[in-house]
Design goal:
Alpha-Beta Plaits, Aminopeptidase, about 450 residues, about 35% helix, alpha+beta, hydrolase
Length: about 450
């Protein structure tokens, strides 16, 4: 670090303490004050950046910065999002917006909502750009910083930024958003640190299953009440998951890590063309992350019935969250759900859907630039590999204006740190976060 790490950490903690909890879309009374406070704090904390970059407020609270380079063509876009998911404070060991540091040195942990998802990346980007501006650095090509304000509720902040860039004819050569990280032990047999870089992400659907009846008093229930029909449909959907398959990026991931695999899995990964079908059947038994890599998933997340304990439900409804593997579509998934449920009295309604993203290449200049920054900042021993992003991100909107959209958060995360995302005790280690700043600096210098 060319600037004191302690000062960077102070700025990080100050921004983590601002509770920019996502505002549900369409709520006119949503409080945007924390987002205004965050915007003002960023301007105050990073004066060099704001002196050199042009800033626009888009869609109410999203931020778009332009750093003019020697050439405006084929710019770099660095993304992150300002909003964080809500907290249940009683479940946390510490104040979720206290940004308390626990421990000392590189292994010290900063505990806060947003430490990883996604203010960790956002503030690391700000630190990298502000430091380079202070040094007098000018990028070879334009750089855009795109910070959406409602990613966690699939809002329109990033979409509005994309529309602004599209109208101006901006066609990025590389877009980088949150996504995979540097992990160890996530892939069976692979003990080397692996940088899993998302080259695509799964689509997202919400499907409502609804069973209806006349209602009435619970003392005289019908032979087949709506709740029983709905429960039967939910059970059928659970017992018959989507089929497994290896999509090209996942196949490439195992080919990439094969030389670094120990034990009997090394020849299995090395001959993935032959063993792929068997592996796709085995992986769901090895954990939820591997299961999600090889199939479209569908899980019931909400259930609703009658308004009272002694009232028959006039309708019973289940919400199903579906994540589409590339190659599947919202239409094909809905059709399969109807076939599996096999009950015309249960309505299947697609409430919302976005298709899987296009797949970005894992060869060529954009990919090579990511790989080079990974090696220089995160370690020569880190193995970069393509990967399917399991969750959704704002980056999917940028596929409209770029063929090179990637999803990678440049932090070394343990399993426990990954499991804390959207849960309690979210945290990041100090050394991991500081190395992330170096990644963004090296990425900016490379282009």
């Amino acid at each position: 670090m060319t600037r004191p790490a302690a000062a960077a950490l102070d700025r990080f903690r100050e921004l983590l303490r601002i509770p920019t909890v996502s505002m549900p879309p369409g709520e006119p009374d949503a409080d945007g004050a924390p987002f205004v406070r965050f915007r003002d704090a960023v301007e105050r904390l990073y004066p060099a950046l704001h002196g050199a970059l042009e800033r626009e407020v888009v869609g109410g609270y999203s931020l778009l910065y332009r750093w003019r380079g020697a050439d405006a063509a084929a710019p770099l876009v660095l993304m992150a999002h300002i909003d964080v998911v809500p907290v249940v404070a009683d479940e946390w060991d510490r104040d979720p917006f206290g940004a308390e540091t626990v421990g000392a040195g590189d292994d010290a942990e900063i505990h806060a909502r947003g430490a990883v998802d996604d203010k960790g990346a956002l503030v690391a980007i700000l630190e990298a750009v502000d430091a380079l501006v202070t040094e007098g650095f000018t990028p070879q090509r334009d750089v855009y910083l795109a910070f959406g304000h409602n990613e966690e509720v699939a809002g329109d902040g990033a979409q509005a930024i994309v529309e602004v860039l599209r109208q101006r004819g901006v066609r990025p050569s590389l877009v980088l958003d949150e996504g995979g990280a540097v992990v160890e032990g996530a892939i069976p047999g692979v003990h080397m640190p692996t940088a899993v870089i998302g080259v695509a992400e799964r689509g997202v659907m919400t499907v409502h299953l609804t069973a209806r009846e006349l209602g009435g008093h619970a003392s005289t229930p019908p032979r087949d009440p709506a709740t029983a029909r709905l429960a039967r449909a939910v059970l059928r959907l659970h017992r018959r998951p989507f089929p497994t398959r290896l999509v090209p990026p996942v196949r490439a991931m195992f080919e990439t890590v094969a030389p670094h695999t120990t034990g009997p899995l090394r020849p299995v990964f090395a001959s993935i063309g032959v063993t792929g079908r068997l592996l796709a059947k085995v992986f769901p038994r090895l954990g939820p992350e591997l299961n999600a890599l090889v199939r479209t998933t569908a899980v019931v997340t909400e259930l609703a019935g009658a308004a009272g304990a002694n009232v028959l439900a006039t309708s019973a409804r289940a919400s199903v969250n579906v994540r589409l593997l590339p190659g599947d579509t919202a239409a094909s998934a809905a059709a399969r759900i109807r076939r599996v449920i096999a009950d015309r009295r249960v309505e299947v309604e697609v409430a919302s859907a976005s298709e899987p993203s296009p797949v970005s290449p894992w060869t060529g200049p954009a990919w090579d630039r990511l790989v080079a920054a990974t090696a220089s900042a995160l370690g020569e021993d880190v193995v970069p590999t393509p990967y399917i992003q399991l969750g959704a991100s704002d980056s999917r909107w940028f596929t409209e204006i770029s063929d090179h959209v990637y999803r990678f958060t440049p932090f070394h995360l343990t399993r426990g740190e990954r499991e804390a995302l959207h849960s309690h005790n979210e945290r990041i280690r100090v050394g991991s976060w500081l190395r992330g700043i170096e990644f963004y600096r090296d990425l900016l210098r490379a282009g």
